[in-house]
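Quick start: what a row looks like.
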Amino acid sequence: MAEKDVKRKKAPYTAREKRKKRRKRAVLAGRLAAAAFIAAGLAGAGFLIWNLSPEIKIAKQLEAAGEYVQTQDFEEAIASCEQALEIDSKSVKAYRAMAGVYLTQKDWESAEQVLYRGWETTQDESLLQEYCVHLLNDAVADINAQNCTMQTLLKCVMAIEKDQVNEEGYKLLDACYARLFAPEMEGMFCEEEAGGACSFDAYLEIMNRMLAVYDANPVEELKAEIVKFAVPGNTILWLDVRHIADYQEFLARVDAIDGEGRLAGLKACIEKAAWVQEIFAPAFGIFESGTFAPIKEFMQSQDYISIRDQFIDGTMEYWDGETYIPVSRERMKLMQEEGQWKFAFADFEDCPQSAGVIKVWGAKQEDAGVQRLCISYEPASESGEYYPHTTYEFVYLYSNVKIGGEYVPQMNYRFETRISAPEGTTSQLIGDWGGEHEWTAEY
């Protein structure tokens, strides 16, 4: 076959191949372009997913919080931290950052609350440790500033609640005790805490928290602190009478865990004071009614005569006096000397705002072989000041009674009303009070 013929036959085949190859290249280019587009889309989606991950969102919020702190826009800084916690309520970093914002403002209490909230939510021990450290640092600051209060004690106890073997916490409890029960702090239980709360109520709440911790985890170091704080270190400590029952109950609980009888003397002293209040409750009712005649029966009661006799003989346990012993319903003072406890109720000199004071008078003086009885009552001052001051005195004695124009000695009641003022005292005396031959004199 001629060369020309050969070329003529191959030419159509070559053209077809070229067209086929062009089609293949076009398909391949399309596929590559599609692949490139998909790859680019996946890369963009990956960046978007990474950029919107919770960790990155939180980091951005905390970064913003830091920038707000730099410009002292603390409200926005806190808001940014809260937004971080909305993304993840268990973000330890967010709690720590928020606490840091409060610390920058020297708002220690809020910082502590955030750390504790964070620990409650996350159970992260590092947050708990930071919380305890801040509490104890606050307590140290209070003590060093000579400003130790029940709130200082509470901070120490809150740290102990979370860590019963915290040595620093126990050292600070000792420091609080030394300052709270110092000799000059005799009125501590009658003071008001910040916000108007009674300091004894605050004390009792803290002690109950300590007992609750001990009940859950009986640590010897904690028991020693509870027993120590139950017994005041002061030589004199005033207590509101309304707290006697609460103090009794608390001492009973502490005595139960002590087991060594170290609270026996104080317990007995408080119980005696409670008994006296119970005995004299009817007398206060009589005096406040304004109808005084029933006081005669009270004066002749076995309890009153027993108290009078023990007072005269000096055999009354935990309660004594000199010429008289007062009974009031507002305040009492606990006194200790060489570990021995006594109590006394406030007189008007101790508590001018008293609602009323009963006095048991004791002098060994017999009339015809009968021991003289004497009781007096001083109501609250109408003006809020000591003067004018009224005293009602009731005496059962052997004295003259005028009968048929003659004076006849016999046992009878005498009722005297004295009104004292800065310029002097006026008196009204009723002899044979309530008797057949009652008489009156004024002077």
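That is the whole record. Residues 187 and 238 are 5 Å apart (CA to CA). Confidence is low (pLDDT under 50) at residues 1-13, 32-43, 45-50.
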